[in-house]
Amino acid sequence: MDTSAYVEAAVEQTDILAGWVDGKDAATRVPTCPEWALSDLVDHVGGVQQMVTTLVRDRLLDPTPAFAVAPGPTDPAEWRAWLTGCADEVRQAYSSVSDDTPVWDPSGAAAGVPFWARRVFGEVCVHRADAAAALGLPYELAPDLAVAALADWLATMTSRGYWDNVPRFAEAMRGDGQTLLFQATDAPGADWRVRREQDGVVLEQGGDKADVTVSGPATDLLLVITRRRALDAAPALAVHGDRELFEHWVDHMDWVAG
Description:
Elements (H helix, E strand, L loop, with lengths): L2 H19 L16 H20 L21 H16 L17 H24 L7 H15 L2 H6 L1 H7 L4 E7 L6 E7 L2 E6 L6 E5 L1 H8 L12 E4 L1 H9 L7
Parallel strand pairs: 1-4
Antiparallel strand pairs: 1-2, 2-3, 4-5
Helix pairs in contact: 1-3, 1-4, 2-3, 2-4, 4-5, 5-8
């Protein structure tokens, strides 16, 4: 997916989420994010999109101004319009930049415009799963979109910026070459291998051997790896090799932006 495709997909996913939460009880708990009520989830999704809009629209190299975001409406009947409006502002911000426009990039890759397009898409896909869990709705995502969301998650979690700025993650993931291979069986070529080293986690596209291989539908992989579904609740996934290595990986996929 290119930058514009990520942005359009984020708008579409936000529209689905907005329809789900429209008029729902703000106090509904979100079991996949136990500290959150539904209102917190709505605030977070819209807040991230506001931040990305400010970063990209204003071409910020210092992100500080972008962190000042407005909470969502207190009336759940206004959530739908607010969320779709936040997504549309992202789309408008991206209409005035190119991939090489300088924008702050926390990953360390210095590619802020495409980085944030990918991230705003990945965020809403994962948080739509949170809304589904809170509201008792089935979660469906086309395999190609699930692959893109999982690729975003893996790239974010293995980035230099995340390693350097989240010491608890770095300590837990520091290793001696242990490898994990993730294979989406419903999306040809969607394979990722991660290798735990002393100074970081290396993400590679493809691979055929690892200490543990986890394979199955892309959506199941996404939900389990992002801790939105328990491994035991995803029978379509097959785990071959060192299951404890994979469980350790999942146990530390606990990142939720504040």
